[in-house]
Amino acid sequence: MTKPLETIEIETAKNPTASVIWMHGLGADGSDFVPVVDELDLTGARAIRFVFPHAPMRPVTINGGAVMRAWYDVSFGDLEGKSRQADERGVRESQAQIAALIEHEGSRGIAAANTVLAGFSQGGAIALQTGLRYPQKLAGVMALSTYLPLADSLPQEAAAANKNTPICMAHGLFDPLIPLVMGAGSMTVLTGLGYSVEWHQYPMPHSVCAQEIQDIGAWLRKVLKA
Question: What residues are labeled active site?
Answer without folding.
Answer: 121, 175, 206
